[in-house]
């Protein structure tokens, strides 16, 4: 048994020595850089810039996996590196930004709330790495941590855009933190946008709808980005509630099937 473990360890070491894939890991590094620069902007008190850099980090995070799959350069190293980068860019960075921007007056309760966001994000990443080969690829279990961080960033931009008072800001952010933390570790299903059908031929109306959506977002980018992020955050609980009757019917059907099989036996 020990010899097999040693052989596996040697194989992994040799695979790393042979080299790693540069392109996808470079994109991941870009995501980490954007997250770190957001942290620097927070320390300098420039919260709007910090929020924008979180969005840039999220874009890079969405690209690295696609680049790896398109070029056939996926690796275990890349998966682990991506998770570590995500924890910094979408866990620690928005947690500190929320504390410095809105939660500092709450004292210990403020930084504990920010820490709750970070630890739930870490748990979400750990669960994703464990379940990555056992869950449906079209759905995420729990709110993805990049989406949670983007929701926080869009909220910062929204308050800055409308100049809302700090007292309202504090209450809204502490409520948002608890909601996002809960959703990250929940079992609600979220669409992953990994469906291959998205890049296949679509009806002409879809193109027209996409153009209209782009125009609306360009007209009011801050408001529309916040609306899009809020819609995605709430899509998990709403989908769960709407799908409840169907799940109950399926459970009853399965239960009746078991009862029938027991009677026959």
Main beta sheet strand tally, sense and closure: 2 strands, antiparallel
Oligomer: single chain
Radius of gyration: 22 Å
Q: What's the average pLDDT? A: 82
Q: What is the number of helices?
A: 10
The appropriate CATH architecture is Up-down Bundle
Question: Total domains, how many?
Answer: 1
Question: What share of the residues lie within helices?
Answer: over 70%
Strand order of the largest sheet: 1-2
Distance between the termini: 43 Å
Order of helical and strand elements:
HHHHHEHHEHHH
Could you give me the name of the CATH homologous superfamily? Answer: CDP-alcohol phosphotransferase transmembrane (TM) domain
What is the strand content?
under 5%
Beta strands, count:
2
The unreliable regions are 1-14
The computed structural class is mainly alpha
Q: CATH topology, anyone? A: Four Helix Bundle (Hemerythrin (Met), subunit A)
Reading off the top of the CATH hierarchy, the class is best stated as Mainly Alpha
Question: What best-fitting shape do the alpha-carbon axes yield?
Answer: globular
Give an overview of the whole structure.
It is a single chain. The protein has 265 residues and is mostly helical. It has a single domain, classed as Four Helix Bundle (Hemerythrin (Met), subunit A). The protein has helices spanning 2-17, 22-43, 47-71, 76-103, 108-131, 145-162, 166-184, 204-219, 221-242, 244-264, and strands at residues 139-141, 189-191. The chain has a two-stranded antiparallel sheet. 30% of the residues are buried. Mean pLDDT is 82; it is low at 1-14.
